[in-house]
Design goal:
Elements lengths: L4 E3 L2 E3 L6 H23 L4 H8 L11 E10 L4 E8 L4 H14 L14 E11 L4 E5 L3
Antiparallel strand pairs: 1-2, 3-4, 3-5, 5-6
Length: 141
């Protein structure tokens, strides 16, 4: 089965949109999530908190840590709610992820395509690579 249909000289997706429209939609969604990621990253500083709380050889160890939040954003970009879906094992590191999300609001209003009953829901991962001294925001599978 073809994912794309030819309609004369215009290629259409299964949703009936043109290839150009589908490409524009993908770009819009990618740009939105990139802006969202950057907004949160600007407020997430686990390395600062780690240096303040932990020292080499402490109980915190050198293992990488992953926190995953389930985030709900209203159509106006305000934070509706958040839930910790996966704990890193370090309360202060999980709270730094929550603080970054709260500080980053208000977010840009989500594209209509992502809203269900006026709310956009998604998972967001915060990976702190302690041993490498790096930090990253990930999108969980």
């Amino acid at each position: 089965m073809d994912r794309w249909k030819r309609d004369g000289a215009v290629v259409r997706t299964p949703l009936g949109e043109t290839e150009q429209t589908a490409s524009g939609r993908r770009f819009t969604l990618a740009r939105y999530f990139d802006d969202l990621r950057r907004a949160i990253l600007n407020h997430w500083h686990p390395d600062v908190v780690y240096r303040r709380i932990a020292s080499p050889g402490t109980i915190h160890g050198n293992r990488d840590r992953l926190t995953i939040l389930r985030i709900k954003i209203r159509s106006d970009g305000s934070l509706d709610s958040w839930t910790l879906n996966r704990l890193s094992g370090l309360d202060w590191l999980d709270q730094e992820a929550v603080a970054a999300v709260k500080a980053a609001q208000p977010f840009p209003p989500p594209p209509e395509l992502l809203l269900k009953d006026g709310i956009m829901t998604f998972r967001f991962g915060f990976l702190f690579e302690i041993g490498a001294g790096k930090q990253a925001i990930t999108s969980p599978p």
